[in-house]
Amino acid sequence: MSQGEKPSWNVEVFYDGDCPLCCREINMLRRLDRRKRIQFTDIATEAFDPATYGKSMPELMDEIHGRLPSGQWIIGVEVFRQLYTAVGFSPVVWLTRLPLISQFLDFGYRIFAKHRLRLTGRCTSEACKIS
Fold first, then answer.
1. Which end of the chain has fewer CB atoms surrounding its CB within 10 Å, N or C?
2. Residue 86 in domain
3. Has residue 4 been placed in a domain?
4. Model confidence at 131, in pLDDT bands (50, 70, 90)?
5. In a domain, 27, yes or no
6. What digits encode the pLDDT tens for the residues 69-108?
7. Of all residues in the chain, what percent carry a pLDDT higher than 90?
8. Do residues 19 and 25 touch, judged by C-beta distance below 8 A?
């Protein structure tokens, strides 16, 4: 994409392609993304270089990251809101912004993200060390 050219996508998602739960969600979003509004970037491929994006691999692995066409980074539940808005689920997304629902989702996602590797059977001594 040349400078000044607007991307054709509404949100780019940086996902762990080695995570079975993540891939299930991403595959569903790919099927729903008929208008190609999502740019999918698998951070688990050998070709992926987080430094290209000014990020580190641990940072990207700690919680889901997304990027808007403006270059603004988003993380956590907001990434899912943007993804589901991109595939046409705006009315449902609106509900997730309500105060109590939003707080519950943020809390639940933080717990999931912290234990994601353990939940998917991908713990290593480094990835799941107790801190």
1. C
2. yes
3. no
4. very low
5. yes
6. 999 999 999 999 999 999 999 999 999 999 999 999 999 9
7. 70
8. no
How confident is the model at residue 116, as a pLDDT? 74
* Domain housing 39: 11-119
In sequence order, the β-bridge partners of residue 39 are 12
Tally of structural domains, the chain: 1
Tell me how far CA of residue 43 lies from CA of 82, 94, 102, in angstroms. 19, 29, 27
**Given the DSSP bridges, would you call strands 65-67 and 73-75 parallel, antiparallel or unpaired?**
antiparallel
CATH code, domain carrying 89: 3.40.30
Residue 55 confidence (pLDDT) above 80: yes
Tell me, what amino acid is at 60? L
Find, among 124, 129, 121, the residue nearest to 19 by Cα: 121
d(CA 120, CA 60): 17
Q: pTM of the entire structure?
A: 0.84
Contact 19, 122 (CB under 8 A): yes
Residue 77 lies in a domain: yes
